[in-house]
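[job 4417] fold queue: 2 targets
>>> target A
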Amino acid sequence: MKNDSSNLGDNGVQQADGTFQPDWDDTFLQEIHGVTLVTGDSHDTVNDKLASVKDILSGAVTEISTVSGDVRPGDEAGHEHFGYKDGVSNPAVQDVEAINPGQTTIDQGVALLGRGVDATNNPNRPSWALDGSFMAFRKLPQLVPEFDKYGPKPDLMGARFVGRWKSGAPVMNATTQDDPALGADASRNNDFKFVKGDQSACPFAAHIRKMNPRNDLSESAIQPHMILRRGIPFGPEVSDEERQANATAQERGLLFVCYQSVLASGFSFLQQAWANKPNFPPASSPTPGFDPIIGQTIGGGVRTMTGAFVNNTAQPLNLLAQWVNSKGGEYFFSPSIPTLKNVFATS
């Protein structure tokens, strides 16, 4: 991913030899060959399994770093650090998962190698790649106190930035105030379409509209670019001191993980062609601007968007802060369990 960081819009500098050096944590500036993800119901469970994995791999690998994520406490469980319910817009995989009303459904081959459209488009995949997936990992620190206090009506503006209220309720169906019952109802919280050419209810640039422009484009144009997101928050909860100062003192954010069968059609495409493109969705007037959550400018510069103000959706807004920054990442291949057991473990 380091070689892709400039294309993704990550902050950094062009060095004398012409190479781009992203402003990443030192850990991710090194060459990384693999990753092990360990999840569990407690830190003790995870640490025990991690110790077992390290014992198995002892002498074969060198550990570069360990990063720890945590489900947020209490009522914030399932929400990322800005407070928004996470994963609501994830697509369903055809013939694998139950499909809720309005939920985007993808062919198995959009996520899994050797299935569906992937088998058709890439017939020469090796047999051991079947049911594997390419994984994109990003460490994304978030400036939470700064985001929470942005604008004259932070809750409403935040909802228009994301396209959902913190409960998960879409602004298409809850335009001016949150509706927690709607957000909690999986049979309703994806049951909507954007109105092509209209951003009165939801800005063109809103994060969920940039990432899944349902009805702005045809379903056949959207589905090849969908990803399965499986990230987790990291870092402590915001302290009272940080809230009072409206300033971040301790690092927190999202350990972003997503899966797709073709990186150039999935994560990399979404960041470059949709989030970072001011004129996407196409044929939208006024110009949509950048995704205010993850959109990045190539080579710096002020990000702008329209649609942030309910009473004047044509008025541009300068996004003076970058509330989400990349501090590293990498691309990996995630094999299927049968391939791990029957191929890799025996070779």
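>>> target B
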Amino acid sequence: MSQQPLLRRAFALMTRNALQPSIRNTVQRRLASGEMPKLTGAADNAFNRERMAVKQHAQASSDLWRKLSLYVAIPSLIIAAINAKNLWDEHWEHWSHLPPLEDRIEYDYMNIRTKKFFWGDGDKLSLTPFEQTLL
């Protein structure tokens, strides 16, 4: 019985120590990724300078696209959704003033059909024969 708390404590210590360096490394990498080290000595050559220039350009580009996504794309989507909702409401507000479909006049030029549709008459949208027999 005395081994149970000991095993539990050892497991907790082992998992805490195993996870701690990986979290610390991730945080350190995130914090260190913004600054570029100064090249000195043998490391200061054309290849390394070009790599650093590419890295700085990639960082600036990713910052630009992140800002565009957050500050332009998301508000634009929200504005478009509000506009669509307003148009939808206006459409159904207009339809509420019209008489019911059964009371409307059917003119000769409406629903002209010169040939049959492959699913039967044009009044049903169902394509399955089973659903057509139910109607």
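[job 4417] complete. Note on B: The mean pLDDT is 78.
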